[in-house]
């Protein structure tokens, strides 16, 4: 019998051991989650498991060989579990200050079969680390470890449910399992909070507030008419999704931003790529927190952490913290500069192949309870850049070289030698080198780098940019360097562009730019083809007399510019009338029997255009026939030219009335416009003149000699 008892005891021990192992649910998904965990911080002295006897939450060490110093909060990883992990007393959330927290969260990989989710909880429950829904003997997954317990089908009000939740709390839930039972038979089963949803979701509310729960009456007729109640949860700030939203086998990034003045908390989900860590837009919602509900004693601080609960189904729930409010407040940014042009390459910008570049990573320590020390920089450097030097410069002026010998597939890791603190708050990692000499446009994706220590992790992305080839474009003139054309003729320039071999560019990729006499002409695309030829024709109206300078250059889609070609077009100068009135008149005048002077009207016009080379003289002479009426009567009087030298009668002999000399510009002389009322051609009539209409023919002669 003794032997039998020993043997039975051994079997019982084994069974209990196996039972404990099964309840741990260390399945392959749990192992994979730890192996793929993103870079985070150590949770030692920052978060601690709740102290309830049924709490299964724990701090565990991640197993990803690519990260260092990262611990995870395991909230749930099995059936019928309650888990809670809370901030320590030294790391409460300060409600009087603007705070930001960031973290990675894992919800398993079981999709529609997942249950039940987690909640990010802010609480001032008097129980502190011992805060929990009042479960009794049964864990209800619907509560997510924070909401009230709806198990009394006879309860017409929500007082009892609210009282069973974590008190003085606000929660952001990540609900992977829908609780939608609304029948009489299911009333009181704690399975009705999500009747308004069709899929997983994020939402927020106050677990200990009666207004969070709406009681709905349900009834049955058979076998005995009776009624009961189920509870609907009031959800705020909802972010919906399908069954890939949460439990999809990926880590999800969450950023929580609190503004103390406005009392607004913004939560942004999936704002980083889980594979490469680059920033994503994510989805956001806001909640205006009622501090009277969550901080009724006005302590201006609140304990925070994660809770979870499972029933007959489960998922693996883990949290990796990245940034803890108040511990270390730091940020990182990047700047890429084309050193050949001194232009900063922003997101979507262009860097030229073969150009020198400078890539700066700026680290800034803003505030914190601790210095940011033992920093490790895990750099993912942009591709298609050849790196020559690397160094780190601190705000106190110290500089250290960084070795590039360890770069493999554009990845390198450096341990930074100096801590950042309020006394030495900035560090800049500077890399220099030369962009790859590509043959065509090459897209370079953004790359994320992580700067981590046990008390804080920040990441930053480089700009996503296009690397364009640097090409030598050669423009030639097939029309020579100059041409002389006739007055009134067009001029055509014929050009040829030579594109380097091996580059896939054709005529219609090229843009021709030009100026004529310093003024820009419209750009145009070269005609379709691959011979590199184009024509530019200038009309007579675009050309001036004398020498015209046409300058041309060609640009490709990659912003490469050819050499500039100058083409000179010579148009012979000319001396000509620009405008002469066909008919001119003198003012209508009543004769008085005395001598009179009759003035011109406004219809006189004589303008001379001189486009000859500077220094060429000209003269304008005039002759006139006598004034004769329609019936053959000759006017008693004569046409005279008046100037400062006196007067001259105008008759059949040419009289000079104007002269000038050409200049470097296209001169226009307004002969009549330069006359005063008392000068120029005027008509003098005698006292014996007879009333009538008289005409004379005036002949203007323009001479290009003195």
Helix percent reads: under 10%
Output the structural class. mainly beta
Low-confidence runs of at least 5 consecutive residues: 1-26
Q: What's the end-to-end separation, in Å? A: 151 Å
Average pLDDT works out at 92
- The number of helical elements comes to 4
Count all strands and give the number.
50
What can you see in these coordinates?
With 706 residues, the chain is mainly beta. The protein is elongated, with a radius of gyration of 46 Å. It contains four helices and 50 strands. 6% of the residues lie in helices and 42% in strands. Mean pLDDT is 92; it is low at 1-26.
Topology:
Elements: H1 2-24, H2 28-35, E1 47-49, E2 58-61, E3 71-76, E4 82-87, E5 93-94, E6 99-106, E7 117-123, H3 159-163, E8 169-175, E9 201-205, E10 213-220, E11 226-233, E12 236-240, E13 251-259, E14 264-269, E15 283-288, H4 291-294, E16 301-309, E17 317-323, E18 328-338, E19 343-344, E20 350-352, E21 356-368, E22 376-380, E23 385-394, E24 399-401, E25 411-415, E26 426-435, E27 442-444, E28 448-453, E29 456-461, E30 465-468, E31 474-477, E32 482-484, E33 491-498, E34 511-516, E35 519-525, E36 533-538, E37 546-555, E38 565-571, E39 575-580, E40 596-598, E41 606-610, E42 617-624, E43 628-629, E44 637-643, E45 646-649, E46 655-661, E47 667-670, E48 680-685, E49 694-695, E50 698-703
């Amino acid at each position: 019998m003794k032997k039998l008892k020993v043997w039975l005891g051994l079997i019982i021990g084994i069974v209990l051991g196996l039972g404990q192992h099964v309840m741990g649910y260390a399945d392959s998904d749990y192992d994979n989650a730890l192996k793929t965990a993103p870079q985070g911080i150590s949770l030692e002295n920052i978060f601690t498991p709740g102290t309830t006897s049924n709490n299964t939450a724990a701090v565990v060490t991640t197993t990803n060989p690519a990260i260092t110093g990262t611990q995870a909060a395991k909230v749930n990883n099995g059936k019928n579990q309650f888990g809670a992990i809370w901030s320590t007393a030294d790391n409460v959330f300060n409600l009087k200050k603007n705070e930001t927290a960031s973290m990675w969260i894992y919800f398993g990989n079981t999709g529609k079969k997942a249950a039940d989710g987690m909640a990010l909880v802010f609480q001032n429950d008097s129980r502190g680390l011992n805060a929990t829904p009042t479960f009794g003997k049964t864990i209800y997954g619907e509560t997510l470890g924070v909401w009230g317990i709806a198990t009394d089908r006879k309860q017409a009000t929500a007082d009892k449910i609210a009282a069973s939740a974590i008190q003085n709390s606000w929660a952001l839930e990540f609900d992977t399992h829908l609780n939608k039972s609304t029948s009489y038979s299911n009333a009181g089963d704690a399975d009705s909070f999500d009747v308004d949803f069709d899929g997983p979701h994020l939402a927020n509310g106050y677990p200990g507030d009666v207004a969070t729960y709406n009681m709905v009456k349900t009834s049955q007729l058979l076998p005995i008419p009776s009624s009961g109640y189920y509870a609907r949860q009031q959800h705020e700030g909802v972010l919906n999704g399908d069954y890939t939203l949460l439990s999809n086998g990926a880590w999800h990034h969450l950023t929580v931003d609190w503004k103390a003045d406005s009392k607004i908390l913004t939560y942004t989900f999936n704002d980083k790529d889980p594979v490469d860590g680059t920033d994503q837009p994510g989805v956001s919602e806001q909640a205006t927190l009622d501090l009277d509900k969550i901080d009724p004693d006005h302590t201006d601080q609140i304990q925070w952490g994660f809770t979870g609960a499972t029933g007959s189904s489960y998922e693996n729930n883990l949290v990796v913290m990245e940034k803890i409010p108040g511990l270390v407040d730091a940020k990182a940014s990047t700047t890429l500069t084309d050193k050949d042009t001194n232009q900063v390459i922003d997101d979507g910008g262009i860097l030229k192949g073969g150009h020198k570049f400078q890539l700066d990573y700026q680290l800034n320590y803003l505030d914190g309870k601790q210095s940011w020390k033992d920093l490790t920089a895990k750099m993912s450097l942009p591709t298609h850049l050849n790196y020559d030097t690397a160094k780190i410069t601190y705000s106190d002026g110290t500089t250290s070289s960084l070795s590039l010998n360890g770069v493999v597939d554009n990845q390198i890791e450096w341990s930074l030698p100096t801590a950042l603190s309020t006394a030495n708050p900035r560090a800049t990692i500077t890399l220099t080198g030369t962009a790859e000499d590509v043959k065509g446009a090459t897209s370079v994706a953004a790359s994320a780098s992580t700067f981590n220590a046990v008390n804080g992790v920040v990441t930053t992305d480089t700009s996503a940019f296009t690397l364009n080839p640097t090409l030598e474009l050669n423009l030639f003139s097939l029309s020579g360097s100059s041409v002389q054309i006739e007055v009134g003729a067009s001029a055509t320039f014929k050009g040829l562009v030579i594109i380097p071999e091996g580059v896939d560019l054709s005529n219609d990729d090229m843009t021709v730019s030009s100026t004529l006499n310093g003024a820009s002409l419209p750009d145009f695309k070269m005609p379709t083809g691959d011979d590199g030829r184009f024509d530019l024709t200038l009309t007579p109206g675009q050309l001036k007399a004398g020498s015209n300078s046409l300058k041309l250059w060609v640009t490709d889609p990659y912003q490469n510019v050819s050499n500039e070609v100058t083409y000179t077009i010579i148009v012979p100068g000319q001396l000509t009338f620009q405008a002469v009135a066909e008919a001119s008149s003198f003012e209508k005048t009543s004769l008085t029997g005395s001598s009179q002077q009759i003035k011109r009207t406004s219809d006189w016009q004589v303008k001379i255009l001189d486009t000859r080379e500077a220094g060429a003289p000209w003269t304008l002479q005039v002759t006139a026939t006598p004034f004769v009426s329609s019936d053959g009567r000759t006017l008693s009087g004569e046409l005279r030219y008046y100037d400062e030298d006196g007067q001259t009668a105008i008759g059949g002999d040419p009289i000079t009335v104007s002269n000038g000399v050409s200049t470097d510009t296209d001169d226009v002389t307004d002969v009549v416009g330069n006359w005063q009322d008392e000068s120029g051609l005027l008509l003098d009539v005698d006292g014996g003149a007879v009333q009538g209409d008289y005409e004379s023919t005036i002949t203007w002669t323009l001479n290009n000699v003195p």
